[in-house]
Design brief:
heterodimer; A: 65% helix; B: mainly alpha; two-stranded antiparallel ribbon; 21 helices; 71% helix; 2% strand
């Protein structure tokens, strides 16, 4: 990383952040479905109530 | 070495026994999950049969030749006002003060040995004597408080037998020999407590240290058992089980104990006691810090105060969730009881609760921010502080916004209705759930930044790790707000309630992810110097604020928990016919709560003074020509 220029570092940070946000969003999306389903409250794909 | 192995085996066995005990209890509960109706017999049966709990006392008298074989069930006494002795002062106020003082000191005495044991174990693992010294000093507070706990406990028992004799007779009949078990446990608690404290230096090193740790573990096992036994009396009064609709005992002692509110109360008190104990010993450290005359003493008590705050805040973070579970179980047991607590006169006390919890979080965060000045590495994170403070203040204001205001006609006209058109929606639970969870998330952020401030990560994946941690914070906060707003205001009630679990899980994910990521990221990190003892004096006042707010909070919410029984000694089976069989005004309750809080703080100051006195040595008087 130390050999990268400023644009390279910014790009690398951007990639890290986009990947991390995508990973976290997927994690919480799955958790939302799981937590609500465990309570007998299923959700649609867009997180609206299925009942 | 052989002794060490034996000791380790003993530890494993004790832990296994505790786990099996817990698993057994859980299994028993699970086995009888389908018999919920029996567990909540009084309310459930009254609803199903239409029988009134106000029916006269039923005694199934044996008749005829089979009399000897038929069980005799005697219900709870039906009292009249003349059955209560009048000693000239309010019976309720007397018992209120004594019970609350006993609970304060009991919480302290049971909690301190729990974290002391952990600190002692850390000392053994790290070989750092400072941990051992600190743990020993914490125990000094607990030991001094122990005698006062017993004095208030004895006084409470005498007051109850004097002022509420029939009620105590009934409780004795219901719990029977379990009361003696409690007495035996109390004896064991004393035995292990004295052994643990006074044996500290005699069992300080080598294999003897493991013996000492085992004594500490046993002390905690006995203390916890003592607590859950006493909790069963309180929860029986709120949600009786093992008795029929008139209070006659129809189950065994285990069925009487394991009412629907027992485990929620057990968990809530377990966590709350640790937070409370941490806060009180933190005040002791602050007191010693401000009184210290040497740099060495200031460094020691600064570190002690930091550790105490760490314990108090860490235990406090999951506490709202345990409280939420307790309230959910109260609602499940009796909606009327739940509404009395959160929708009636007592609801206003939840606003006061919000003020006190806000005080605790602000003080805890402030202490962490001030403590960051101990290391130069903190400059990297100081930019976050203003945003954390802003979030805390905004969420605090949302939390204290009441739903229903007590208004005059002219005020309603000026407002345009009974609810403010903008602030009104902030008065209901979805808004408050968002506020509470965000306050906990940013408090954990303060804590995480503090922990990071004296370290520089050396792992190659530092940037990726930070991005992941940051993303988890961002998405968790967005998820908490989304769940609160969308399900809270735009879907049905069932989804609204269910989404609060989603919010809790989001907060817990942040905490767990933060602990795990930091544990790996800062393994082998470069350590920056921390200047212990150079924290500003004003940070110590935050440590004083914590136990004051905690004590007030315990008195307040303990009162709410007890008051939800309204005019019943034992809910739905034994009516309170005394002159005090009503929920007092908020003003009266507030005064009582404040009096017990101040009284406890006076006693705590006395304990600090005594603890200080025990280390003070008067210099030998010097006279001319020699020593006197």
């Amino acid at each position: 990383m130390s050999g990268q220029g400023v644009p390279g570092r910014i790009l690398a940070s951007l990639v890290y952040w986009v990947a991390a946000l995508a990973l976290a969003a997927a994690l919480f999306y799955g958790l939302d479905h799981g937590v609500m389903a465990m309570q007998g409250l299923p959700l649609n794909w867009d997180l609206s109530p299925a009942q | 070495m052989a002794d060490l192995k034996t000791m380790l085996r003993l530890w494993v066995r004790v832990l296994a026994a505790l786990v099996l005990l817990g698993a057994g209890a859980a299994a028993t509960c699970a086995d009888q999950a389908d018999s919920l109706e029996q567990r909540i017999a009084p309310v459930g049966r009254v609803q199903l049969d239409g029988a009134s709990p106000l029916q006269p006392l039923v005694e199934a008298q044996p008749k005829g030749a089979d009399a000897a074989e038929e069980p005799v069930f005697t219900g709870a006494p039906q009292l009249k006002r003349r059955d209560y002795p009048n000693i000239g002062v309010s019976s309720r106020a007397t018992v209120w003060v004594l019970a609350q003082m006993h609970l304060f000191f009991g919480a302290l005495v049971l909690a301190v040995p729990m974290f002391v044991l952990v600190i002692e174990l850390i000392g053994v693992r790290t070989g750092d004597d400072r941990y051992d010294d600190m743990a020993h000093e914490f125990m000094k507070i607990s030991l001094t408080a122990y005698a006062i706990t017993a004095l208030f406990g004895g006084s409470l028992a005498l007051a109850l037998f004097l002022l509420y004799p029939q009620f105590m007779e009934y409780l004795m009949r219901v719990f029977g020999a379990q009361m003696l078990v409690y007495a035996v446990l109390f004896f064991l608690e004393s035995l292990f407590l004295y052994l643990y404290y006074y044996g500290w230096d005699a069992m300080r090193y080598g294999d003897r240290k493991w013996l000492h740790l085992t004594i500490g573990l046993t002390l905690n096992a006995v203390g916890l058992t003592l607590m859950v036994v006493a909790n069963s009396w309180a929860t029986f009064m709120m949600a009786p089980s093992g008795v029929d609709e008139v209070g006659a005992v129809v189950g065994n002692i285990w069925e009487v104990m394991k009412g629907p509110l027992w485990n929620p109360i057990n968990l809530h008190r377990f966590i709350a006691n640790i937070a409370f104990g941490g806060a009180v010993v933190g005040a002791y450290a602050a007191y010693k810090f401000l009184a210290a005359r040497t740099a060495e003493a200031r460094a020691h008590y600064d570190w002690m105060g930091y550790t105490s705050n760490f314990i108090a805040i860490l235990a406090f973070l999951p506490l709202p969730f345990a409280g939420y579970w307790l309230m959910a179980e109260i609602y499940a047991y009796s909606q009327q009881m739940g509404i009395t607590a959160m929708g009636g006169i007592l609801a206003w006390l939840f606003i006061v609760q919000a003020v006190l919890i806000g005080t605790i979080l602000l003080a805890g965060n402030y202490y962490l921010w001030a403590g960051m000045s101990r290391t130069d590495g903190s400059v990297r994170y100081q930019g976050f502080i203003k945003w954390i403070a802003l979030t805390l203040v905004v969420c605090f204001l949302i939390w204290v916004t009441p739903h229903t205001l007590i208004l005059s006609v002219s005020e309603i006209a000026a407002l345009g209705g009974s609810h403010h058109h903008v602030l009104g929606p902030l008065g209901i639970m979805p808004a408050k759930n968002i506020a509470v969870n965000l306050m906990l998330v940013v408090t954990f952020l303060s804590f995480q930044l503090y922990r990071r401030s004296d370290k520089v990560a050396t792992v190659k994946w530092e940037r990726a790790g930070n991005a992941l941690m940051g993303a988890i914070y961002v998405v968790a906060i967005a998820n908490i707000i989304f769940a609160g707003v969308y399900y809270g205001y735009f879907t049905n009630t069932v989804y609204k309630v269910g989404s609060s679990v989603m919010q809790v899980v989001s907060t817990l994910v942040v905490i767990v992810a933060g602990v795990v990521i930091d544990a790996y990221m800062f393994k082998g990190a470069k350590q920056l110097p921390s200047k212990w003892g150079q924290v500003p004096d004003r940070a110590q006042y935050a440590l004083f604020a914590l136990p004051i707010a905690f004590t007030w909070l315990m008195a307040l919410m303990g009162y709410v928990r007890s008051s939800v029984r309204t005019h019943w000694h034992v809910y739905t089976v034994m009516k309170d016919a005394s002159v005090d069989n009503y929920i007092p005004t908020i003003g009266y309750a507030g005064n009582m709560i404040t009096i017990v809080t101040l009284l406890f703080l006076v006693f705590i100051l006395f304990i600090f003074w005594i603890a200080n006195l025990s280390t003070t040595k008067q210099p030998a008087p010097v006279v001319e020509g020699g020593v006197e």
